[in-house]
Design goal:
alpha+beta, Beta-Lactamase, Helix Hairpins, five-stranded antiparallel β-sheet, 17 strands
């Protein structure tokens, strides 16, 4: 029954005097348990809730003062049957010939259910709004939040975004997200991200960003499109979590695994090399001795035999040098100590090991003359591994180029020397250059590389308190290593 009262109307006629005396009241009021006879000639205010009476009087006074023809106001009445009801009174103001208000005639409309629904909706909206604010506060305290327009331009960032990026809010708003681009990810990475969110899908992944000061940080990112009323993309919401520390721990773990892998690999190679060296050295010693014996008897030998003996002797010496170089390269260096070691021996050993590879790939090698008394402070076996790896990589890089050359140079600077390994290539793309020092990253075909060479070299050089630098400003592909230099006068005099 109560639901049927929604918008239910009661006719009324009230004198336009301060008492608001009722001179007409429709029988419809009986639905509410009100006897119309008991209302006639009494003040309309007797029906109105006491808290609303003053407001009703002020409204009536204002309407009368400003000569308003339509009386429209809200109030509550107490009914015997259904208790307190919320009503709207709409009435025409009837005036005399002089324009004085005589009475109001119109209807009272029951708005209880509608008002209840409106209040419920308002209450619900306020609750949801409050919930959204609380949720936003929670998210803002733990996540890096940004909103961009559909072109990727930033329209909102929270405090954590400002804090981690190093930019202030004014420097970020209106800027494209490219302001944070680190160069770590390639174009394909960003193309996949953009195509995913443009397709109204959620993208998730790890991104490396660059702070205002140039340092890098990693975030796990979720980007979701926000759709407008038409179902089209209006904005993008991104929520990020800082995972820089976790990435560092992961990289350290990978580095340990790399170190262990390379150590075990070199130990195995060392064992095999020692075994091969032992098996080869004995017959090699005999071959060398016989060749030298023939050369001592050169008066009784033909020129062809002498030339053959000399060739045998040189080849045997070269084989012996290769064996010694491989033994140096593969030996366990964990217990070695830093020492001053001739730089030319390091380079010569690396070149000797790779001579066959250069011939096979038709790669020419040139190098500046390194004085024999130039010594570097190093672990000789380890530093040989580094240069062998760099030269080998350079050979692989130019193997299919029209020009195939590798050049080794040095720049002397007081008590330091910078060694440059340069090849015929014209540099490395930025997105690849950012990754080449990472363990297991390789651009070589499957089976042609482990992706550990440069990362292992970097690890070795860290033990030498230096680092491996890729020079992206050079015309040709260039790697640099800086080492301590000492000129040994004793070696110079030899």
């Amino acid at each position: 029954m109560e639901n049927s009262l929604d918008n239910f109307q009661i006719y009324f006629k009230i004198e336009a005097d301060p008492e608001l005396r009722v001179i007409g009241f429709g029988p419809e009021c009986e639905v509410y348990g009100i006897d119309p006879k008991e209302v006639i000639n009494k003040s309309f205010l007797d029906l109105v809730h006491k808290d609303d009476q003053e407001v009703l009087l002020k409204t009536q006074k204002a309407y009368k003062e400003y000569q308003v023809d339509i009386f429209d106001t809200y109030f509550r009445i107490q009914t015997p049957k259904f208790g307190l009801r919320k009503m709207q009174a709409i009435a025409q103001v009837v005036r005399d010939l002089k324009g004085n208000s005589l009475y109001y005639e119109g209807y009272i409309k029951d708005l209880t259910l509608r008002k209840s629904r409106e209040e419920t909706n308002v209450s619900t909206m306020n609750y949801l709004k409050n919930l959204a604010i609380q949720y936003q506060n929670v998210v803002d305290n733990v996540a890096i939040v940004a909103v961009t327009d559909k072109k990727g331009n930033i329209v909102h960032v929270n405090d954590l975004f400002v804090e981690i990026s190093g930019y202030n809010r004014d420097e970020l708003i209106g800027k494209n997200h490219r302001i944070l681009k680190s160069g770590i990810h390639d174009k394909e990475f960003y193309r996949d991200l953009w195509e995913t969110i443009q397709d109204k899908k959620v993208w998730k992944g790890e991104i490396c960003n660059k702070r205002k000061d140039g340092t890098l940080y990693w975030v796990f990112t979720t980007i979701a499109p926000i759709l407008g009323p038409t179902g089209e993309i209006d904005k993008f919401l991104s929520i990020r979590y800082d995972i820089t520390h976790e990435k560092q721990l992961h990289d350290e773990e990978v580095e340990k695994m790399t170190q262990q892998f390379m150590t075990e690999k070199l130990a195995t190679v060392g064992e095999v090399t020692a075994s091969i060296a032992h098996e080869i050295n004995n017959p090699l010693t005999i071959i060398k001795a016989q060749a030298e014996k023939l050369l001592r008897r050169n008066n009784n030998l033909s020129e062809d035999i002498i030339n053959s003996a000399e060739s045998i002797s040189k080849t045997a010496n070269r084989i012996q040098k290769i064996i010694e170089s491989i033994k140096t390269l593969s030996r366990n260096t964990e217990n070695d100590e830093l020492e001053w070691f001739p730089l030319h021996e390091v380079i010569d050993q690396s070149v000797e090991i790779l001579k066959h590879k250069m011939i096979k790939n038709n790669v020419s090698l040139s190098q500046m003359h390194i004085p024999k008394h130039y010594c570097v402070y190093c672990y000789p076996g380890e530093i040989t591994q580094v240069f062998t790896n760099l030269i080998s990589n350079a050979i692989d890089a130019v193997a299919e180029l029209p020009e195939r050359w590798v050049d080794i140079r040095f720049i002397e600077n007081g008590d330091e020397i910078e060694i440059l390994v340069i090849d015929a290539g014209h540099g490395i793309p930025q997105e690849i250059a950012q990754k080449i020092m990472r363990p297991f990253f390789t651009t070589k075909k499957f089976g042609q590389g482990t992706g550990l060479g440069l990362s292992f070299s970097k690890k070795i050089l860290k033990r030498h308190n230096t680092t491996l630098v890729y020079d992206d400003s050079a015309k040709n592909t260039t790697f640099k290593i800086k080492l301590k230099l000492k000129k040994d006068e004793y070696l110079k005099a030899m």
